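To fix ideas, we quote verbatim one protein's residues and fold tokens.
>
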Amino acid sequence: MLIGKVIKWLCVAVLGVMGFSACSDDPMGGAAAYGSPTADYKYMGTVTDEVGNPIEGINVVLSGIVNATGNASLTLKTDKDGKFATVPLKSHSTQIESIDFIDVDGEANGGEFESQTITPKDMTKTQTKEKDRWFVGEFELSANIKLKKQ
């Protein structure tokens, strides 16, 4: 009976010390990492007409989960060079399922263009920052989109 109580208290002490040691800083100087590895993704590209002229004012709509805000989309506009880009979006809080290119200004910027939809798998993926522990790295997903006139 006495041996059972001693073993029980010994287990409590050992497990307690192990629990506290698991919550301490790691030997590399940072806090212990928990969860899933993450990465940052920057979506970018150029939108042109069929002959290669840049199209300004095209809505670029990234649909899915955006920065865990509950928003189902993020809308950008192409600039005068037909370019668009997001800031790096965190993979643990963003999951883009599709990207729509929509002409919303009609004839104002070179004519009326048909809409087009792609997925991130259709884009070129380039790593721009190396991985570091639980951070898998930063990537650019780029696409050159040619829209057809209506």
Q: What stands out?
A: Residues 38-147 form a domain with the Protocatechuate 3,4-Dioxygenase, subunit A fold (CATH 2.60.130.10). The first strand starts at residue 38 and ends at 49. The first helix runs from residue 2 to 22. The CA atoms of residues 54 and 123 lie 19 Å apart.
